[in-house]
Amino acid sequence: MEYFQKAKTIKLISHKDKYLVAADDLVSIVQESNETVNNKLSATWTVEFVDGKDSIRLKSCFGTYLTASTQPFLPGVTGKKVVQTMPNCYGDVATEWDPQRDGMQVRLRSLCGNFLRPNGGLPPWRNSVTHDIPHRPNTWNKLLWDVEIVEKRAVMTPPDKGFFGSKLIHNAVVSQEPI
Length: 179
Fold this sequence. Notes:
Layout lengths: L6 E7 L4 E5 L6 E5 H4 L7 E5 L6 E4 L5 E8 L7 E6 L11 E6 L2 E6 L4 E4 L10 E4 L13 E7 L11 E6 L2 E7 L1
Antiparallel strand pairs: 1-4, 1-12, 2-3, 4-5, 6-7, 7-11, 8-9, 10-11, 13-14
């Protein structure tokens, strides 16, 4: 979680050096290579913290959220679709992700216990993203994402008193007097 504390916007990069991208159809989530992503906003995600939890939400440039759906990616496979959904005023736990740090990388775990997983291979797997629990030990490393901080969060520092000291009552300046 501390990995995201300083980040306002990020890009997620898979083990195959592909970026997590919100497609412009406002539904699909895909992976794209560095050459196609360079100046695309759709690869940039805004980090939002969930109140009272160690979870985050990732908001796309379209205002949609990275969501762990319950729909199977393909019939008969364990992987479920990862999609974009519009914000829900009540808060949707399917949009919440629990970041688990592993060295300099993270795994993103949905609240149902599945991990965000970049897929490769032949179509329809190529450049797709699902969420599931890997059953092979060597697959765990494929769940790791590099986090590239695009914009840092503004650090809240106490106001500098400078030459004059201020007495504050309920955030209103009452008087200023020389130090």
